[in-house]
Design a protein that fits this description.
23 strands, alpha+beta, single chain
Amino acid sequence: MLCAAIVVAVALTGCSSGQPASQQAAASTPHDVTLTRAQRRHLKVLTVQPMGYHTTVDATGAVDFDRNRAAQVLAPFSGAVSKVLVTLGTKVHEGQPLATVDSPDFAAAAGAYRKAVLAARAADAVASNDRDLYAHKAISARENAQAQADAAGADADRAAALQALVALHMNAGAIAAIAAGKTTAHGQGVIRAPITGTVVEKSVAPGQTLAAGATPCFTIADTAKMWVMAQVFGADIGKVQAGDAVTIDTGDGAGTLTGTVTNVGAVIDPATRSVNARVSVANPQGRLKKGMYVSVRIDSHALHSGLLVPASAVLRNGQNLPFVYVVTKHGGYARRRVVLGPRVGNRFVISQGLHASDTVVVEGSIFLHFIQTQ
């Protein structure tokens, strides 16, 4: 097509080297182009009308755990690790033992609970007996009231001691054994999984000393659903909303994944000048790994209206400014400066420069440009 355009253009323009300077200057000014009927058959035109469209934002993102489905396990008590029961990648269920610890805290809490149980039983027995004696007027009201208060206090101490064991992740069977007066493993504490998921981080080893509430031991995550934190810049920030559909390409050649924008950050990252759009993605095959970089395409669900032309209709001048050719009322072709809006697939939104019902050249524009600039 380009060769044919050059041949036709040369035939139309002839040799211009002998033109006066004034004629050459006039030739450098854009003018309407007219074509023969045969030449017009090589062009394709489109009459533009307002139409609805959805914007698309391309971005990069980093994979992270779904923080609503992940938990870091801190040491619930102090002491030395005696045994680690899981490894990285182990799938665990809520309450499953992860490690055992020789802990004086654990032994002290178990002993305090045993004492509290015995004290509460004794106080409850005295209170029950005094209620019966008071009913038969064998003791005074003050003595009965004192017995009831002592029982209530002992019951409260027992409940507090029980909560201390629960906070140390002691299971219900061991607690019941202590309450029944049975002996338990001396000072043996158990670190348990707080949620069902996969062990994705392990920070402890046998012999390591733990500090209660401070030493990180494990991270458990449900990797069946992950987050992708997409970086959105500049004018694209206003185009992304919660609920937008997202396509994720991991680059592994196994096809794309789909997700949904669940949150758009309210703060600009000072280092990157971007906003994070959080995308929730189902990950049943485990393709997404924490820290992985992926390509993200966000399709806005908000419907916009505007004039769209194919990208093939848009050319650029020597100053890199975009323009199109429109069909004039006399049947010629005139250059029209335009302002481009967002790109939607293989089309551009024209925010300025065109009006509804304008007819635009969408194929063959480069041929017109060649003729016009000779």
